[in-house]
Amino acid sequence: MRLDLLPPGRAAYIDRIEWDSLSLGEAQRLREFGIDEGSTIETLHRGGLLGRGALACQVGRMTIAMRREHALAIHVRTGPDTPPQPAPGAPAA
Fold this sequence. Notes:
The chain has about 90 residues and is an alpha+beta fold. The chain contains 2 helices and 5 strands; from the N terminus they run E-H-E-E-E-H-E. Strands 4-3-2-1-5 form a 5-stranded antiparallel sheet.
């Protein structure tokens, strides 16, 4: 699913980013904010008329505002990509 469709308050993993749909400067800026494949992101709320404006997102401990056209290039998933790993020191199953 695309980031713009992620319901507010639900965390997801960034699965894929269409880097070639972004300018070099936009891509660099998103990476500086910690947005990259494998990162966790959460949509907090949407701005603008009827929620069609920028998105407020939580990436790590940082809250950022992202334009909707940038969110269209980010594909997320809400399920884990690998099975959970045992805690350190826990016996193997």
